[in-house]
Structures are given as C-alpha cells and as structure tokens.
Amino acid sequence: MQQEFVEDAVARLESTGVTYAITGSIASNFWGVPRLTHDVDILVLLPADKVAAVVAAFPEPYYVSEPSIHDALRTGTMFNVLDTGAGFKVDFWVSAGDPFSQSMLGRRRRVQLSPGHEAYVGSPEDVLLHKLVWHTITPSERQLADAAGIAAVQAGNLDLGYLRQWAARQGTADLLEAVLQGQHLKKT
Fold first, then answer.
1. String of DSSP letters for 121-164
2. Domains (range + CATH), the chain
3. What whole-number distance in Å separates Cα of residue 101 and Cα of residue 94?
4. pLDDT digit of tens for each residue in the chain (188 aa)?
5. Model's pTM, two decimal places?
6. Cβ distance 62 to 5 under 8 Å?
7. How far is 79 from 114, CA to CA, in rounded Å?
C-alpha cells in the first residue's frame, strides 16, 4: 500500500511541474538494501508561484497546509502532505538553493518504481551522502546502515571522486571512508 501511495504522490507532484527527487529511505531502498520505512522524503525546488498548484494537486483524502508551505519556503525547511485515510506522510524538503541540493537535483535519475510508474530519485552517491549528513545531525545506526547498503549494492558503480569531494565539503569524509570499507558499525 505504501508503494501505491508513493506512486500517487509522485504523479500528483509531477502534475504541478515542480522539480523534485525522492531521497531518504525510499531512495536508499532503491539503491541499496531494502528495509521497512514509514516515511517518504522528497527534495523539491518549489517556486512560490507553484504553491497553489501543489495544494490543488493534493485534495482530500490528502491534507496539506498552504501556510506551512509558505513557512517552509521562507525558512528552507519542509512541509508535510498527509494521506488522512491511510495515514501515510510525505515530507517535502524545500531546497534552500545550497550547492548540494542543486547538485542532487541536477544528478537525479529517472527510474521505474514499478511497472508503469516512473519517478526521479536522487543518485546513489547523493542519497549515500545525504544519509551521512543526517547521521551527523542525529546519530543513527540506521542512517549508516542505509549508506553502507548503498555502498555495498552499488560497489563498482559509484563515482568515488564525487563522493569524496562532497564528503570533504560536508565534513563526513571519515564516515564515508568507513562506510566504503565496510567499517560503518564501529563506533564513529
């Protein structure tokens, strides 16, 4: 049922023309080792003139607060869209225009989520880097395990130069090397 929710939410978002990339656990499940997750994270480049279209794209049983979208635009944070019937939620993270978000949106990939359903997903490198950053904000073995799963499944396909460049800029170079070497479960 969550798969259908993700597909529907993405189709509704795409109808607005907003630039986006699925990130977070849904993306790490796609590129790495799947695990159960209850949240959907989507990075959006949301111009103010698209807010009304986003609100209109999510009628009942969805709930979205237009004032919370404007707050997210002002603060560069996130707003939620809730499916009040099923209890699912999407966290839409508003791009603050920072270089990493710009790079992630520029490198996103169009993938098949299921037969007949495509979406833009952050690249494996960007999702891995994002997991490392989140681990530094809120330390969690889950974030590191997700990053390690991407590194293991995508081994040989990752752009190591890109990963190392961004990890150095983000202050996660040591974490990245530990994850790439399979040492993520040691205390960091």
1. E--HHHHHHHHHHHHHHS--HHHHHHHHHHHHHTTTTS-HHHHH
2. 2-121 (3.30.460), 124-180 (no CATH)
3. 9
4. 688 999 999 999 999 999 999 999 999 999 999 887 778 999 999 999 999 999 999 999 999 999 999 999 999 999 999 999 888 999 999 998 899 999 999 999 999 988 999 999 999 999 999 999 999 998 889 999 999 999 999 999 999 999 999 999 999 999 999 999 987 554 43
5. 0.92
6. no
7. 26
